[in-house]
Structures
1.
Amino acid sequence: MDIFSNPEIIWLIAGILLLLLEFAIPGVLVIFFSFGALVTALLTYLTGMSAWMQFFSFVIFSVLFLFLLRKRFLSLMTGSKDIDPDEEFVGHKGVAENDIPASQIVRVEFRGTQWSAISEISILKGQRFIITGIDGLTLKIKPLIEV
């Protein structure tokens, strides 16, 4: 009997690989898909679910774990009780690579990634800015006045 012909073994291996992948990818996201795969492995072992039910179970449990546990995991990792994943950049600083006109959405680089950003006050090229909020995927920034 080939070990890889058992779907519960395949789900178990997928769950373990996804769990290991979480350590390589920051952001506390992949672990919930790992949990979904592990639950699916257990349910497949116990019930012998069909392939489409296995896939359905994986998707449902992964999304369920993601929505129910992500905020708790983030707060455990950061030590904060009230962390909001959308506000994790607030208070961080960056440097404007180009002039940023007031009230216009522009692209800025922050932590090696390009982001949309908007500022109520113009920011000159080379000037430091601070992130004051986030609206969807757009960073709200303002010039950093250093004393």
2.
Amino acid sequence: MERTYIADISGKIGQQILLRGWVHEIRDQSKIKFVLVRDVCGIVQSIVKKDNHFFDQIAKLPKESVVEVVGTVKEEKQAPGGVELNIDKYSILSESERELPIQVIEKTKDSTDLSKRLDWRSIDLRKPANLAIFKIQSALLDGIHGYLAGEGFVQIFTPSILGVPSESGSEMFALDYFGIPAFMRQDPQLHRQLTIAGGIEKLFEIGPSWRAEASHTVKHLCEHRTCAVEMAFIKSEQDTMRLEEQVIIAAFKNVNQKCSKELALLGVELKVPEAPFPEIRFPEVYDILAGLGKKIEYGGDMDTEAEKLLWEHVKEKYKTEFWFVNGFPFKKKPFYVMRIDEKPEFARSVDLYYRDIEMSSGGQRENRYDKLMANVKEKGLSLESVEWFTKFFKYGVPAHGGFGLGIERLTQVLLKLDNIREAVLFPRDTQRLTP
């Protein structure tokens, strides 16, 4: 007999089926025992009546034991999902210890400390609400991938180990590479640009990056995943913004289409945003913030308080959750960012915000060799340290740009999770390296 998944049970009324999964809970009554069996699709109520020879035996099963169950499906309006399974026979595939390190049943809001939950992550992931997070995250990525592939973007893979720092050495993890100093990448940015220079005009990459940043907040990780997109022959950073809007819209539509049950379980009503997203530019940012009681020196960058104030401004004025900030001060940006020629103190640098949290950084890159080298000198970088990258710009590189969208942050804000670590299977931060 082939295995049936719980998602398919409702179409098998009156049939005998085989299930495999975990014992989620056992409710012991005098004449009937309810065994809730859980698999990757959900939970089904299974019953054993008193005249069954294993009536007393099955009640002793430790929760979270892995079982194989054969039974007959019947319609039952009072059961979750409107069906239940009459168990004919069962076998234990892997028996659990009786005392669990953390609870899996979600009758009330989980009060277990997040750190302990992460210590026992594989048990914690068995909770249906936690499983729902990663089904939704998978649907986000599926929507992103599907849209970009449909628009002719080529998926690529760039190196994770670098011979020189990609931006600055202070926040990079160093390692010994056969006796040669090396670094884990902060961002695949520079190699994406070299791929554009190589003639792949539209590309994307989904993969990890690392930052040795000492921040231990609810939105920071030392290892995170990004969907990085780059395209050539753009007219300006506006082209990258229009693309990113469509990527977000496609991702959200895919989640709504495929994860309605998971969204309902998490109490989330996902609204697909409308394009174009509003854009706030520097230096006008300073005037807006000043009007909200926040003064930032001309040429200065935003802090967390400024981001929250701007979000309140956007929410009231535009009635939207997604918004761009464009034209950041160049002195705060890396050397490869293109400056605005007529206003060189500012750059064609764009951040996308979802509510009050930054989702991505991007914009237009500097493709003109003389301008690029001028940026290198202004940033105080040695010519030798970036020559591996800059030398290719002598040989004809089209105008290009893109963005790097944080997958875990997008998941966190979408689902209103308290901590970004809840959106990571096995988080890596300043205090955690296992499991």
